Amino acid sequence: MTLHSPQRPSWLCAACGRSYPCLAALATLAAGDLLTAQVYLAGLFVSAVDDLPAVPVADLYARFLLAVPVRWSERRA
């Protein structure tokens, strides 16, 4: 079984061939700790910007950084 992981420098999923992060990878990331997923995807975003200069940065930002929802916990006093 191949994991849904990025192939560089194309940034396609190794398992399904779709743009990474694919829906399966996002589902796996969203099921875990969201802060960890966001930090992980932020690191990938930086690498993807370098690897994909023809893709607008705004598109990569949406693809990597807006992919996992943000959940804010209630602020404690």
How does this model look, in words?
This protein has helices spanning 23-31, 34-51, 57-65; strands spanning 6-7, 12-13. The chain is mainly alpha-helical. The chain has one domain (6-65). It has a two-stranded antiparallel ribbon with strand order 1-2. A hairpin with a 4-residue loop joins strand 1 and strand 2 (12-13). The longest helix is centred in the middle third of the chain and has 18 residues, at 34-51. The model has no long low-confidence stretch (mean pLDDT 88).
Strands across the major sheet, in which order? 1-2
Task: Please state roughly what percent of the residues sit in beta strands, choosing from under 5%, 5-15%, 15-25%, 25-35%, 35-45% or over 45%.
Answer: 5-15%
Compute the number of structural domains: 1
* Class derived from helix and strand content: mainly alpha
Helix content: 40-55%
Strands, count: 2
Q: Distance between termini?
A: 47 Å
Number of helices: 3
How would you characterize the largest beta sheet?
Answer: 2 strands, antiparallel
Q: Which ranges are low-confidence, i.e. pLDDT below 50, for 5 or more consecutive residues?
A: none
Shape: globular
Elements, N to C (H/E):
EEHHH
If you compute it from the alpha carbons, what radius of gyration comes out, rounded to the nearest whole angstrom? 13 Å
